[in-house]
Amino acid sequence: MTPPPPSESDQRRPSQYEVVVQGIQEMIVSGEIASGDRLPVESILATRFAVSRSSLREGVRALVAMGILETRQGSGTTVTSLDPGLLLKPLEFWAGIQAGTSSRDLHNVRQALEVEAAAVAALRRTDEDIERLKAVLAEAEPAIQALDHEGAMAADLEFHLSLARISRNPVLVALLEALSRPTLRMRLWQSIHLGGRIAITHQEHLAILNAVVAGDPRGAHAAMQTHLAQVAVVLRDTPDSR
Predict the structure, then answer these.
(1) Which residues neighbour 223 within 8 Å (Cβ) at sequence distance 6 or greater?
(2) Which parts form a coiled-coil structure per UniProt (predicted)?
(3) pLDDT tens per residue, range 19-45
(4) Which of 210, 199, 207, 237 is nearest to 103 (CA)?
């Protein structure tokens, strides 16, 4: 027998500070206030949301922590640039604490995004973009030769993000940054414990670069797919994939 739906009295009512958070978010979504706009004064907002001023301030602090609002001395509280890189920061933290199946699920999402990003890079790259990618891989070579695993991993991340930036899509870049940074620990373990993997990764990056330089989206897609498939194998076999 299907249980009856919860009554209105059974459902938790939002706290006053949650009313403030939701209310200000709705003001932004509706276009009532926009990036750079200053919030109305406290008395107006407290009356509008039927909350105390202390609850209003608590809600504003929560929105500041989310990167939606910012408070500056002398200029009051304003809406931020709403940059996706800022707003997606909590995703990076959440991704960083995943392990096991959740970590592999995250990698699958990253893989779907990155293979398309590589194909787009092959179509949209400029001479300046190509030089940037070459410079990143050139900077990685001394770290690889010196078995500087942390340096090589930093170059690895920068190569992937530089590819994503060629899309000129800030949402894609922010998503990949949030999903890629947490896997650095796993890739560092991989490069240290799996002999030769650090050099193989570099060769895979060069294959991706060559396809991008050639303006070959299918080749770039395939090269990135091959590269990230190897990462997936290590994720599966690495103890506590975090």
Answers:
(1) 118, 204, 207, 208, 210, 211
(2) none
(3) 999 999 999 999 999 999 999 999 999
(4) 237
